[in-house]
Write a structure and sequence with these properties.
Radius of gyration: 34 Å
Strand content: 25-35%
Number of helices: 2
Strand order of the largest sheet: 2-10-9-4-7-6
Structural class: mainly beta
Shape: elongated
Helix content: under 10%
Length: 504
């Protein structure tokens, strides 16, 4: 959650198509003559005889090829090209920092392949208003050229936080405040031009947020947690346009939406950007008039089969109109339907070395409950003499009324009549998932935790028919101690049978 435009905190800690020019070559006089002879001799054209009657074709058996169909036109753009454009871009003063800014960029459409009209586009950044105030450097994005404070680049297929078009540094003696602007213009052969502008400010905005409180523990699923952003502006330049508060929830979704906020979705949103009007001067403190609430969810959005054990709501503050390099919603993101949130003056005094972000964290009732681990039962099915590759299944973790699976370390004891044929990781693409005879008693095999995509594998062979019905075992070993201090309530099911089924 650090980083961002110089002095602007990042809320979260997140190819252009080649242009091939066509150069028609020149034909020599001999070549032109040859083409003329071929046209006369082989094209099968007709002419008029002296008596005015059409003559027979020179080669009546030859036919001309039909003309090639014209290439389909390149479709034009059907949506605005820029995804996000900064209204403000801050560059530290020469006295405030001798370094270059973090770089200027425009977030264009995420996928230019969906906008073929812009595949051969160029973008020109006009910085002539900053002459004598700022220098461009120390380098440019690949393919960009700076000529007299106009930077021209091929339109990138994607432009991210680590791929700005250029960097700026303020010259000594330039006062803080408005210095000029960047005017960009996108031109393409098959699409109308697109332009925009960004005001360039000399100064370093910075915010100090209220420290996070201790995590809330044992929150029930379906209950609400809330946070009230509170901060002090500690920048060295006034903010006439106000501030934007970016909020993000995990393990939860926002309970309500507000008119001055944009969301990733109006149904169970997890990201929001709320903008509040200015001005804001150095030393001003603000807080939300109402807290922002989020509802704790039962299952994870990233892993729908996994219950939510912990989560939180975090926020970061930045000047309104400034792009966060890693967090941000497009301008056309849906707006909330409820009343507008409001910032009000506050007497908050940040502690020394306060962070630029805040929020609240929580654990759910599931996280506080004891975890009952259950080893997976395994059945080896095959013919006598057949070699079989076993994939070690995950163990099951029960907490209250919820269950989840997790790859754990397993000790395998093969039943009589079954032997191991491959123990090791040489045939795997990863050394993380392996089985070994080392570190366990004779006759046992230890399989390290794999992943859901690449579980540990063990090669076995059914040596004789009498193996059917004989018993081996699979046992969970080396479980980490529970973070909440609650032991496994049923350790007996940490071991499960390994059976053999012989088929003909």
């Amino acid at each position: 959650m650090h980083g961002g435009t110089h002095g602007v905190p990042s809320h979260r800690s997140r190819t252009a198509a080649a242009r091939v020019p066509s150069s028609p070559g020149r034909l020599s006089g001999a070549a032109l003559c040859l083409l003329a002879l071929v046209a006369v001799a082989g094209c099968g054209t007709t002419g008029d005889t002296p008596d005015g009657k059409p003559s027979a074709p020179a080669h009546p058996t030859r036919t001309t090829s039909p003309p090639a169909a014209p290439a389909p036109p390149v479709p034009s753009a059907t949506e605005p090209l820029p995804r996000r454009v900064a209204d403000l871009f801050f560059v530290p003063s020469a006295e405030g920092s001798p370094l270059f800014s973090n770089g200027y960029r425009v977030d264009f459409a995420n996928d230019l392949n969906a906008l073929p009209a812009y595949r051969d586009a160029t973008v020109a950044y006009d910085l002539t208003s900053l002459k004598g105030k700022m220098v461009i450097g120390p380098g440019l994005r690949r393919g960009c050229v700076n000529k007299d404070h106009v930077v021209t680049c091929p339109l990138p297929a994607s432009e991210g936080p680590n791929d700005p078009a250029f960097w700026l540094k303020t010259l000594p003696g330039v006062p803080r405040g408005r210095a000029g602007e960047v005017v960009f213009r996108v031109t393409a052969p098959h699409a109308p031009p697109v332009s925009g502008r960004t005001t360039v400010m000399v100064g370093s905005p910075r915010f100090a947020a209220e420290p996070k409180p201790p995590p809330r523990r044992g929150v029930a699923r379906g209950a609400e947690v809330s946070v009230t952003p509170r901060f002090t502006y500690q920048g060295d330049v006034p903010l006439p346009g106000g501030v934007t508060v970016g909020l993000e929830s995990s393990g939860s979704s926002f309970s309500a939406t507000y008119a001055n906020c944009r969301y990733d979705s109006l149904e169970h949103p997890t990201q929001a950007e709320c903008t509040f009007p200015g001005p804001l001067s150095p030393g001003d403190s603000r807080t939300l008039r109402l807290p922002v609430a989020a509802t704790v969810e039962s299952v994870s959005r990233l892993e729908p089969r996994e219950p939510v054990l912990a989560g939180g709501v975090s926020y970061g503050i930045r000047p309104a109109g400034v792009l966060d390099p890693e967090f941000g919603l497009p301008e056309n993101a849906p707006r909330g339907t409820g009343p507008a949130l409001r910032l009000v003056p506050d007497g908050f005094e940040p502690p020394p070395k306060a962070l630029t972000y805040g929020g609240i964290e929580f654990t759910t009732e599931l996280n506080e409950a004891a975890a009952d681990w259950a080893a997976p039962a395994i059945t080896i099915k095959g013919r006598v003499g057949e070699e079989i590759e076993l994939e070690m299944p995950p163990a099951v973790e029960h907490r209250l009324d919820a269950s989840s699976t997790q790859q754990v370390k397993l000790k395998v004891v093969l039943p009589p009549g079954v032997s191991a044929t491959r123990v090791g990781s040489t045939w795997l693409s990863s050394d993380a998932a392996y089985c070994t005879r080392e570190g366990v008693e004779a006759g046992a095999i230890l399989c390290a935790p794999g992943t859901a995509f690449e579980p540990a594998r063990l090669g076995v062979r059914i040596d004789r028919a009498s193996a059917a019905g004989s018993g081996g075992s699979v046992e969970i070993v080396d479980l980490p101690p529970p973070a909440n201090g609650r032991p496994d309530p049923d350790p007996a099911n940490n071991s499960a049978p390994l059976r053999v089924r012989v088929v003909r």
